[in-house]
Specification:
Oligomer: single chain
Number of domains: 2
Order of helices and strands: HEEHEEEEEEE
Strand content: 25-35%
Radius of gyration: 27 Å
CATH class of the largest domain: Mainly Beta
Helix content: 10-25%
CATH architecture of the largest domain: Roll
Distance between the termini: 81 Å
Structural class: alpha+beta
CATH superfamily of the largest domain: SH3 Domains
Number of helices: 2
Shape: rod-shaped
Largest sheet: 5 strands, antiparallel
Strand order of the largest sheet: 8-7-6-3-9
CATH topology of the largest domain: SH3 type barrels
Number of strands: 9
Length: 142
Amino acid sequence: MIIKEYLSSSLIVLLLFGISDTIHARNCKKGKPCGKACIALDKTCRIGAGGAGNMNRGSARSAKTPSSIKDSTLRKSRLRLPKLYIVTARSVEAKDSPYSDETTGRFKEGQTVFVYETFDSWARLSNMQPQQWVRLEHLQLK
């Protein structure tokens, strides 16, 4: 009788510990588990980190500013998908970076362009090198 109770309680304990581990852990084939999802192996799981994760993301974005701009007080916003704009000025010169003197192209009035990123009052129109930046005042959302 004592052996039967011992075996049944041992079995229950093993089942409880075994089930709880499988409930919380995910089977990620190409990454590692993070909460209810899988993330890349080189990423850090920030679940339960609070607001500190948001602060780190902002500083990482400011590191991606164009090389010619060193002022950290400028505002930058990234668009997830490119948006369609129309050139409103007669002719606009595209520069390789905001506040640069080097011209990389020219756009005409009525031409439709994709805006991949905005930075202060500038819009990045190219997704490859050389970059093409135009003032937002010369563009209108389509």
